[in-house]
User: Fold Beta/gamma crystallin 'Greek key' domain-containing protein from Pterulicium gracile.
Amino acid sequence: MRFSLATLSLAAAGSLVSGATVDTRAVEADLTSRSVSWLHVCDGTNFTGLCWDYISDLFENGCYNLPWEQADVISSMDRRGGARCSAYQNEHCTGYYHSVDNQKWSWPYLDPNPASPQMNNAISSINCWFG
Assistant:
C-alpha cells in the first residue's frame, strides 16, 4: 500500500491558542498509538531551524512534491512509524534519491550513507510506503 504525505502545520490548524506550548512527546505518543507514520524534516542540521511534519493519512498518491518554501532546504529527516521513505532531488520523485530507512538522517552528523551528503539542501519530493 502506498500513500503520499500531507503537511501538518499546527499553527495553520487554528486549534492552538496564541502563545500556547505543545508537548511534542504527547503528540508523538498519540500518533504512534494510532499507528500513524510520519516524517519530521528540518532545514537545519541535527533537527534545528524550521521544521515540518508530513503525516501519512492513507492518501493514494505515492509521491509528494514539496512546496516551494520547503524544497531544496532540508538538512535533517526523522522517519517514525512503520513506513519506509525515500527523498528525491527532483520533483515527481525522480533523479538521485536517498532512502530514509535508518529512521534518522542529518547531514553530516547522523548519516550512515557517505553518498547522501549530496542530498543536503537538495530534496524536492518525498515518497513513503508500507512494506
